[in-house]
Amino acid sequence: MSQVQHLINVSGGKDSTAVYLLALESGRPFRAVFADTGNEHEITLDYVDRLHERTGGPKVEVVRADFTERLAKHRAYILEQWPKEGLADEIVREAALLNEPSGSPYLDLCIVKGRFPSRMAQFCTEELKTLPIVLQVVVPMLKHGPVLQWLGIRAEESRNRSQQARFNRHDSGSMLWRPIFRWTVEDVWSKHREHGLAPNPLYAMGMGRVGCMPCVNCRKSEVRRIADIFPEHIDRIERW
Question: What is the pLDDT of residues 223-233, one digit of tens each?
Protein backbone atom coordinates (compact mmCIF):
# COMPACT_ATOMS: atom_id res chain seq x y z
CA MET A 1 0.00 0.00 0.00
CA SER A 2 1.26 3.50 -0.90
CA GLN A 3 2.26 5.72 2.01
CA VAL A 4 -0.04 8.60 2.89
CA GLN A 5 1.24 11.96 1.63
CA HIS A 6 0.63 14.93 3.92
CA LEU A 7 -0.16 18.40 2.58
CA ILE A 8 -0.51 21.45 4.85
CA ASN A 9 -2.65 24.30 3.54
CA VAL A 10 -1.02 27.57 4.63
CA SER A 11 -2.67 30.99 4.43
CA GLY A 12 -0.19 33.06 6.41
CA GLY A 13 -2.69 33.31 9.25
CA LYS A 14 -2.39 32.11 12.84
CA ASP A 15 -4.47 28.93 12.50
CA SER A 16 -2.81 27.46 9.42
CA THR A 17 0.59 28.35 10.90
CA ALA A 18 -0.33 26.40 14.04
CA VAL A 19 -1.22 23.41 11.85
CA TYR A 20 2.14 23.71 10.06
CA LEU A 21 3.82 23.61 13.49
CA LEU A 22 1.78 20.55 14.47
CA ALA A 23 2.93 18.80 11.31
CA LEU A 24 6.53 19.59 12.25
CA GLU A 25 5.99 18.06 15.69
CA SER A 26 4.55 14.90 14.15
CA GLY A 27 7.90 14.10 12.54
CA ARG A 28 6.16 13.11 9.31
CA PRO A 29 7.47 14.36 5.97
CA PHE A 30 5.01 16.84 4.49
CA ARG A 31 4.53 19.49 1.84
CA ALA A 32 2.98 22.90 2.43
CA VAL A 33 1.15 25.07 -0.09
CA PHE A 34 -0.09 28.65 -0.21
CA ALA A 35 -2.57 30.01 -2.77
CA ASP A 36 -1.69 33.58 -3.72
CA THR A 37 -4.99 35.24 -4.61
CA GLY A 38 -3.41 38.41 -5.97
CA ASN A 39 -5.14 40.31 -3.16
CA GLU A 40 -2.59 39.60 -0.44
CA HIS A 41 -0.67 41.98 1.79
CA GLU A 42 3.07 42.02 1.12
CA ILE A 43 3.69 41.28 4.82
CA THR A 44 1.72 38.03 4.49
CA LEU A 45 3.60 37.06 1.33
CA ASP A 46 6.91 37.61 3.13
CA TYR A 47 5.73 35.70 6.22
CA VAL A 48 4.78 32.67 4.14
CA ASP A 49 7.95 32.87 2.06
CA ARG A 50 10.17 32.81 5.17
CA LEU A 51 8.19 30.35 7.31
CA HIS A 52 10.61 27.51 6.56
CA GLU A 53 13.59 29.64 7.62
CA ARG A 54 11.98 30.42 10.97
CA THR A 55 10.83 26.90 11.75
CA GLY A 56 13.14 24.47 9.98
CA GLY A 57 10.20 22.98 8.09
CA PRO A 58 9.67 22.62 4.34
CA LYS A 59 9.42 25.71 2.17
CA VAL A 60 5.84 26.65 1.40
CA GLU A 61 5.02 26.17 -2.26
CA VAL A 62 2.98 28.91 -3.98
CA VAL A 63 0.20 28.41 -6.53
CA ARG A 64 -1.90 30.96 -8.40
CA ALA A 65 -5.13 30.60 -10.33
CA ASP A 66 -4.88 31.28 -14.06
CA PHE A 67 -7.87 32.76 -15.89
CA THR A 68 -6.10 33.38 -19.21
CA GLU A 69 -8.30 30.99 -21.20
CA ARG A 70 -11.56 32.19 -19.67
CA LEU A 71 -10.61 35.82 -20.31
CA ALA A 72 -9.74 34.97 -23.92
CA LYS A 73 -13.16 33.40 -24.47
CA HIS A 74 -14.85 36.41 -22.91
CA ARG A 75 -12.77 38.78 -25.05
CA ALA A 76 -13.61 36.84 -28.23
CA TYR A 77 -17.32 36.98 -27.35
CA ILE A 78 -17.16 40.75 -26.85
CA LEU A 79 -15.38 41.34 -30.17
CA GLU A 80 -17.78 39.09 -32.07
CA GLN A 81 -21.15 39.68 -30.44
CA TRP A 82 -21.16 43.20 -29.06
CA PRO A 83 -20.90 44.91 -32.48
CA LYS A 84 -23.95 42.87 -33.57
CA GLU A 85 -25.84 44.36 -30.63
CA GLY A 86 -25.11 47.88 -31.80
CA LEU A 87 -22.44 48.88 -29.27
CA ALA A 88 -20.01 51.55 -30.44
CA ASP A 89 -16.61 50.39 -31.68
CA GLU A 90 -14.84 52.43 -28.98
CA ILE A 91 -16.79 50.68 -26.21
CA VAL A 92 -16.14 47.27 -27.73
CA ARG A 93 -12.40 47.93 -28.01
CA GLU A 94 -12.17 49.22 -24.43
CA ALA A 95 -14.14 46.27 -23.02
CA ALA A 96 -12.00 43.79 -24.97
CA LEU A 97 -8.83 45.44 -23.66
CA LEU A 98 -10.09 45.07 -20.09
CA ASN A 99 -10.37 41.33 -20.66
CA GLU A 100 -6.61 40.88 -20.94
CA PRO A 101 -4.89 39.15 -17.98
CA SER A 102 -4.13 41.78 -15.32
CA GLY A 103 -1.44 39.91 -13.40
CA SER A 104 -3.78 39.51 -10.41
CA PRO A 105 -5.85 36.30 -10.17
CA TYR A 106 -8.33 38.13 -7.93
CA LEU A 107 -8.99 40.91 -10.43
CA ASP A 108 -9.08 38.48 -13.36
CA LEU A 109 -11.71 36.42 -11.54
CA CYS A 110 -13.84 39.51 -10.90
CA ILE A 111 -13.63 40.41 -14.60
CA VAL A 112 -14.62 36.88 -15.63
CA LYS A 113 -17.55 36.89 -13.18
CA GLY A 114 -18.54 40.47 -13.95
CA ARG A 115 -18.68 41.30 -10.23
CA PHE A 116 -16.83 41.20 -6.93
CA PRO A 117 -17.35 38.34 -4.46
CA SER A 118 -19.82 38.97 -1.64
CA ARG A 119 -20.99 37.31 1.54
CA MET A 120 -23.78 35.54 -0.36
CA ALA A 121 -21.63 34.79 -3.43
CA GLN A 122 -18.25 33.93 -1.95
CA PHE A 123 -16.82 32.31 -5.06
CA CYS A 124 -13.33 33.67 -4.34
CA THR A 125 -12.30 30.92 -1.90
CA GLU A 126 -13.16 28.09 -4.29
CA GLU A 127 -11.75 29.73 -7.42
CA LEU A 128 -8.62 31.34 -5.97
CA LYS A 129 -7.60 28.94 -3.21
CA THR A 130 -9.25 25.51 -3.31
CA LEU A 131 -9.15 24.80 -7.05
CA PRO A 132 -5.56 25.97 -7.69
CA ILE A 133 -4.30 23.83 -4.80
CA VAL A 134 -6.31 20.81 -5.93
CA LEU A 135 -5.43 21.06 -9.63
CA GLN A 136 -1.80 22.09 -9.30
CA VAL A 137 -0.74 20.12 -6.21
CA VAL A 138 -3.27 17.57 -4.95
CA VAL A 139 -4.13 15.88 -8.26
CA PRO A 140 -0.44 15.30 -9.18
CA MET A 141 0.21 13.97 -5.66
CA LEU A 142 -2.71 11.53 -5.93
CA LYS A 143 -0.91 9.81 -8.81
CA HIS A 144 1.63 8.62 -6.24
CA GLY A 145 -0.73 7.57 -3.47
CA PRO A 146 -3.33 8.83 -0.95
CA VAL A 147 -3.23 12.46 0.16
CA LEU A 148 -4.25 13.91 3.53
CA GLN A 149 -4.77 17.67 3.55
CA TRP A 150 -4.39 19.37 6.94
CA LEU A 151 -6.64 22.45 7.30
CA GLY A 152 -6.41 25.23 9.89
CA ILE A 153 -10.13 25.46 10.64
CA ARG A 154 -11.53 25.95 14.15
CA ALA A 155 -15.15 25.44 15.19
CA GLU A 156 -15.30 28.60 17.33
CA GLU A 157 -14.51 30.84 14.35
CA SER A 158 -18.04 30.76 12.95
CA ARG A 159 -21.30 28.81 12.99
CA ASN A 160 -20.61 27.56 9.48
CA ARG A 161 -17.20 26.22 10.43
CA SER A 162 -18.52 24.61 13.60
CA GLN A 163 -20.75 22.40 11.43
CA GLN A 164 -17.88 21.01 9.37
CA ALA A 165 -16.54 17.54 9.99
CA ARG A 166 -13.14 17.04 11.58
CA PHE A 167 -12.34 14.47 8.91
CA ASN A 168 -13.96 13.93 5.49
CA ARG A 169 -13.33 12.93 1.91
CA HIS A 170 -12.86 15.68 -0.71
CA ASP A 171 -14.24 15.49 -4.25
CA SER A 172 -10.66 15.36 -5.53
CA GLY A 173 -10.17 11.98 -3.86
CA SER A 174 -7.96 13.37 -1.10
CA MET A 175 -8.94 13.37 2.57
CA LEU A 176 -9.41 16.54 4.62
CA TRP A 177 -8.39 16.77 8.30
CA ARG A 178 -8.96 19.68 10.67
CA PRO A 179 -6.55 18.90 13.53
CA ILE A 180 -7.19 22.10 15.53
CA PHE A 181 -10.98 21.98 15.14
CA ARG A 182 -11.62 22.10 18.91
CA TRP A 183 -8.84 24.55 19.74
CA THR A 184 -9.39 28.00 21.19
CA VAL A 185 -7.56 31.03 19.87
CA GLU A 186 -5.36 30.92 22.97
CA ASP A 187 -4.35 27.35 22.05
CA VAL A 188 -3.22 28.71 18.68
CA TRP A 189 -1.15 31.52 20.20
CA SER A 190 0.33 29.05 22.69
CA LYS A 191 1.53 26.83 19.86
CA HIS A 192 3.34 29.82 18.33
CA ARG A 193 5.00 30.54 21.67
CA GLU A 194 6.08 26.92 22.12
CA HIS A 195 8.05 27.20 18.90
CA GLY A 196 9.30 30.72 19.54
CA LEU A 197 7.56 31.83 16.36
CA ALA A 198 6.17 35.34 16.10
CA PRO A 199 2.78 35.43 14.35
CA ASN A 200 2.09 37.35 11.18
CA PRO A 201 2.89 41.00 12.08
CA LEU A 202 -0.45 42.15 10.68
CA TYR A 203 -2.20 40.88 13.83
CA ALA A 204 -0.20 43.28 16.00
CA MET A 205 -1.35 46.07 13.67
CA GLY A 206 -4.99 45.35 14.51
CA MET A 207 -5.90 43.11 11.60
CA GLY A 208 -8.39 40.34 12.33
CA ARG A 209 -7.88 38.62 8.97
CA VAL A 210 -4.65 38.31 7.02
CA GLY A 211 -5.64 35.96 4.17
CA CYS A 212 -6.69 38.79 1.84
CA MET A 213 -6.19 42.51 2.20
CA PRO A 214 -8.96 43.40 2.41
CA CYS A 215 -11.23 40.34 2.65
CA VAL A 216 -14.75 40.82 1.29
CA ASN A 217 -16.03 39.64 4.68
CA CYS A 218 -14.22 42.32 6.69
CA ARG A 219 -16.21 44.21 9.25
CA LYS A 220 -16.51 47.93 8.55
CA SER A 221 -14.26 48.64 11.53
CA GLU A 222 -11.52 46.51 9.97
CA VAL A 223 -11.88 48.24 6.61
CA ARG A 224 -11.42 51.50 8.55
CA ARG A 225 -8.20 50.22 10.15
CA ILE A 226 -6.88 49.07 6.78
CA ALA A 227 -7.67 52.47 5.29
CA ASP A 228 -5.82 54.20 8.15
CA ILE A 229 -2.72 51.98 8.10
CA PHE A 230 -2.57 50.69 4.52
CA PRO A 231 -4.51 53.19 2.37
CA GLU A 232 -2.81 51.88 -0.76
CA HIS A 233 -4.73 48.62 -0.41
CA ILE A 234 -8.07 50.44 -0.32
CA ASP A 235 -6.91 52.53 -3.29
CA ARG A 236 -6.15 49.33 -5.20
CA ILE A 237 -9.66 47.98 -4.63
CA GLU A 238 -11.09 51.32 -5.77
CA ARG A 239 -9.08 51.10 -9.02
CA TRP A 240 -10.27 47.53 -9.56
Answer: 999 999 999 99
